[in-house]
Design a protein that fits this description.
- One of its GO terms (molecular function) is FAD binding.
- This protein has six helices and 16 strands.
- It is α/β, with parallel strands linked by helices.
- The protein folds into two domains: about 160 residues, Rossmann fold, CATH 3.40.50; about 150 residues, D-Amino Acid Oxidase, subunit A, domain 2 (D-Amino Acid Oxidase, Chain A, domain 2), CATH 3.30.9.
- β1, α1 and β2 form a beta-alpha-beta unit.
- The protein binds flavin-adenine dinucleotide.
- The site of flavin-adenine dinucleotide has 40 residues, from α1, β9, β14 and α6.
Length: about 375
């Protein structure tokens, strides 16, 4: 039997598994519990396998923790291009916009070409940029993370919890839990966060071997991630390690939990992405795109953005008579929870940097010395 863990990670998405591996590498004994585990679930509220998936920081304030998290992730993913090119690969990306763009829009890139209409931008756009960035194969990357967790002997159990309190006793008594429950954070007793909401994403998986460059309509995406009502985002993301597969997007449907997209939505995605890159069906129309499937995932979003923070609490906090916890005997025990949720549409982009921040907070919990994130 494995020894009792120091930390339990609640959640086995890209955030929970990246954190579990980082804690293990830092010398913590760790275990994972999640209602969905890699490879055994197609639930729409298990966001990670449905991601596009590109690395691209939309933040331009280089002093913000989120930007730093993103860039640390970018640096570490670049190493994987050499070891796992089937999971992470460089691609050029064309970003187009209705308003002027500059190198400052992508401070993390060192090869930005600034473009205007005279460079022949698609879709009637007047401005654009091109630079290199990383594309990931999200479903395969999730299987890879699951294999890494198992290979390191980290216990991982499939279980749905009603309360954060239950996580302190799944593997024997522990004092520290990481709440990486994604959309689950909306209703997790003891840690329920009313700012968490779903932003549904519909994508089309297509085969288009002539597409060699990713593409996105930049101003819509930026505004979408900042929140609020926007026209649907448009993007084309080649998927590494496949026979010319591309992910075509998309939608950002706030508070929409339906797994069934309309034909109108799917056709709109095909039309908008074809206008961005006619190599999706060379010589044809949007109707000639070779569609392999339509996917739906719920982005675990949060009104005030990502939450990566240590909270000191007592077991039983936040529980009511109507929502009792499973660990009544433990009620009142002082424990810690590190929240790591609210990643919305950027979980892969921030994942490894967020995992490093969680390790720093776990050390703070253990030693009392404040972490510097
Ligand atoms: C269409 C689409 C395109 C996207 N494209 C990109 C992209 O290009 N780049 C990018 O970075 N991101 C992208 N994203 C966003 C990305 O998928 C998410 O940000 C990321 O997956 C969030 O990871 P997570 O681990 O927080 O949540 P999840 O992957 O949802 O994992 C949550 C975990 O918590 C568990 N859990 C929840 N509640 C409970 C409970 N009560 N008890 C036990 N376990 C529980 C779940 O079972 C699961 O294991 C996209 C998302 C969608 C839908």
């Amino acid at each position: 039997m494995s020894p009792k863990p120091d930390v339990v990670v609640l959640g086995a998405g890209v955030i929970g598994l990246s954190i579990a591996l980082e804690l293990d590498a830092a010398g913590f004994r760790v275990a994972v519990v999640g209602k969905d585990l890699p490879g055994d679930s197609n639930a729409v509220d298990y966001a990670s396998p449905w991601a596009g998936c590109l690395w691209f920081s939309y933040d331009t304030d280089t002093t913000k923790p989120v930007y730093k998290r993103d860039v640390r992730t970018f640096q570490r993913l670049q190493e994987m291009v050499h070891t796992r090119p089937d999971l992470v690969q460089w691609y050029p990306i064309l970003s187009v916009s209705g308003s002027p763009m500059s190198k400052d829009d992508h401070p993390w890139a060192d090869d930005v070409k600034v473009l205007t209409a005279k460079d022949g931008l698609p879709g009637g756009f007047a401005y654009g940029t091109e630079c290199q960035t990383l594309m990931m194969n999200a479903p395969q990357y999730m299987l890879y993370l699951g294999e890494q967790v198992r290979a390191r002997g980290i216990p991982m159990v499939k279980k749905r919890l009603n309360s954060v309190d239950e996580a302190y006793s799944v593997f024997g008594k522990v004092d520290l839990v990481v709440n990486a429950s994604g959309l689950g954070a909306q209703a997790l007793v003891g840690a329920a966060d009313p700012a968490v909401y779903s932003a549904r994403g519909v994508t089309v998986l297509a085969r288009a071997p002539k597409v060699t460059r990713a593409g996105q309509v930049m101003d819509v995406l930026k505004a979408t991630f900042a929140g609020g009502e926007q026209p649907p985002p448009t993007y084309i993301l080649p998927r590494p390690g496949t026979d010319g597969h591309v992910v075509l997007g998309g939608t950002y449907d706030a508070e929409n939990y339906s797994p069934l997209p309309s034909t109108e939505i799917v056709e709109g995605i095909l039309q908008r992405t074809f206008a961005l890159d006619s190599n999706l069906a060379p010589g044809g129309t949007w109707r000639d795109i070779e569609v392999l499937g339509v996917n739906v995932g719920l982005r675990p979003s949060r009104k005030n953005g990502q939450r990566v923070e240590l909270e000191h609490r007592r077991i039983g906090d936040g529980a009511t008579a109507a929502t009792p916890t499973a660990s009544l005997a433990d009620r009142g025990r002082s424990v810690g929870v590190i929240h790591a949720y609210g990643f919305g549409g950027v979980g892969f982009i921030s994942s490894l940097g967020a995992a490093e921040d969680v390790v720093a907070l776990a050390k703070e919990f253990k030693t009392g010395a404040p972490a510097r994130l």
